[in-house]
Amino acid sequence: MQYRRLGTSAIVVSDICMGTMTFGSQTDEAAALRILDRSFEAGIDFYDTAEGYPVPPDAKWVGRTEEIVGKWLKTKPRDAIILATKVSGPSHTWFRSPLRHGKTALDRRNITVAIEASLTKLGTDYIDLYQTHWPDHDTAYDETMEVLDELVRAGKVRVPGCSNETAWGLMKSIAASEKLGTVRYHSIQNNFSLNNRRFEDELAQVCRKEGVSLIPYSPIAGGVLATKYSQGARPEGARFSSYLAMGGRQEAMARRFVNDQSIASAERFAAIAAEHGLDPVTFAVAWSKQHDFVASTIVGVSREDQLDAIFAAADLVLPESALKAVNAVSREIRYPMG
To answer: Which of 87, 161, 233, 234 sits in a 20 to 30 Å window from 203, CA-based?
Structure first.
């Protein structure tokens, strides 16, 4: 396992991060605890969760993921774990959170309530990386950054980060921090994979110039890059198989990941992986890690047997021939996820 600095902070993390968003819904507690144990044994010290997990968002189980992670955390030395969680973004925009009766926001009250609830569920007195789960571009960043600054000064948070942010939003947040003299975001957690390279268009340059690290999620594109949805397959128990039958926002999300273009590119990438003797999952995770603006790639599994292909990417560096082949596919099939 390799280790990298998170932004310009004092925190160094393993370049693979274990995500937990299915723990408590698709993945039961016993399986989740085994996955976490095996990840720790493999050298992963970075774990990501959120107050709104597990997915799909639902009031009947919201918060369960943090409770499971908290139970596991008690079995490990706290200082050995770099723990990340998130405060929900505003519910009046594209998504309505099941938390706080759908009235979530990034103001002082919501952030204060959220951090206390997360600390209790996780059974810890501090969070290493505390992230805003999604932004509100119609609200000034000043209050959000001031409250995060207070949490850092109180010792409840080590560093703040953001998620699902745009280049404009990240720069506005940095400008607010510089104006106010507060802490700044050290990381951004956005979707980034072989099938979704939009981060490279603008945000990668912001990260390089401003000292912010990407923590990419969905490096396997929700399983699409594992070719599990190829040839019209809808595997039983797979997340997007379920989402496609749900309708509404969940179906719309699934169709962004699972479509003719994304499946075609996934099959091409899988062929490149095979030419280099690699599992497509291993290949996709290694590719994600192999960027100068990436600190740690967030992976997620719902079953223990999915871990080996991910762990195989730990010290893997893809050769230039593989990177050139990937770029050729990306030029031919542009933005397969839209």
So the answer is: 87
Q: Which domains does the chain have, with CATH numbers?
A: 3-189 (3.20.20.100)
Q: Residue 93: is its pLDDT beyond 90?
A: no
**86 φ, ψ (degrees, to nearest 5):** -140, 145
Phi and psi (nearest 5°) for 106?
A: -105, 40
Write down the pLDDT at residue 241: 86
Closest CA to 20 of 161, 142, 151, 118: 118
Note the pLDDT tens digit of each residue in 161-190. Answer: 999 999 999 999 999 999 999 999 999 999
Using DSSP's 3-state secondary structure scheme, residue 297 falls into strand
pLDDT level of residue 3 (50, 70, 90 thresholds): very high
Query: Residues 53, 141, 217, 243: which is the catalytic one?
Result: 53
Closest among 190, 197, 201 to 131, alpha carbons compared: 190
Catalytic: 53? yes
Q: Please name every residue paired with 162 in a beta bridge, in sequence order, or none if there are none.
A: 132, 188
Q: What does 105-138 look like in DSSP terms, one character per residue? A: -SSHHHHHHHHHHHHHHHT-S-EEEEEESS--TT
